Amino acid sequence: MKVKVILSAFNRPDLLPIQVKSIQKYLKNDHEIIVVHDSRDNQYVDEFVEVCETLGVSFHHHDSVSGKTPSQYHGESIQWAYDTIIKYECVDDLTLVLDHDMFLIDELDLVEYVGDNDIAGCQQHRGPVEYVWPGLAMFKYQSIKDIEFDFL
Fold first, then answer.
1. Rounded-to-10 torsion of CA 114, 148, 89, 43
2. Cα–Cα–Cα angle for 132, 2, 92, nearest 5°?
3. Pairwise CA distance, residues 81 & 115, whole Å
4. 92: exposed, middle or buried (Cβ count in 10 Å: 0-12, 13-18, 19+)
5. CB environment 103-130: b (16+ within 10 A), e (fewer)
6. Stated pTM of the model
7. Helix, strand, or coil here: 101?
C-alpha cells in the first residue's frame, strides 16, 4: 500500500525542505508527497513552487478568503485537499495529513502503525466534541469513502 503524504503548508517555505527531507529519511513506506499551500494572498506562492520543484514533490495552491481564524483557514484548506485531491488521487492509498511544522524524527512504517484501523491520529477535545486533529491524521480512503467529512 502506498502512502500519500499531504502537507498543509502556510507562509513558511523555509520549513518545507526540512519537513520533506525528514519524511524521505524516516518514512519507510513507498510514498508520494503532496504540498497544499493555503494563503490569503500570493506572497509565498513562487517560493513554494520553487521549493516543490527542487524537491520533486507535487504542489497545489488553495486560496482562502480573508477574515477567518487560523483554525478555520486550516480546516478549509484540509477540506479542499480532501475534496479535490484525496477523493481522486488517494483512493487506494493510506493518506497521512501533516501540519506545516511537524517533522518525522524516527523511522516510521505507517502501514504497520495504522494496521487494521481505518483512521488514526491525534485525538482532540473541545467541549463536548471529540475529533481527530487534521494536523496529524491518517486514514484509508477506501474504508471511509462513504463517511461525510467536515473539516470546517
1. -100
2. 75
3. 24
4. exposed
5. ebeeebebbeebeeeeebbeeeeeeeee
6. 0.91
7. coil
Sign of the C-alpha dihedral computed for residues 28, 143, 119 and 147 taken in this order: positive
- Cell numbers at residue 65, please? 478568503
Pairing between β-strand 31-39 and β-strand 58-63 as defined by DSSP bridges: parallel
Q: Locate 64 and state its grid cell.
A: 482562502
Tell me which residue of 53, 58, 50 sits closest to 4, measured CA to CA: 58
pLDDT tens profile 127-145: 998 888 888 999 999 998 8
Cβ neighbors of 132 (< 8 A, separation 6 or more) are 119, 120, 121, 122, 123, 124
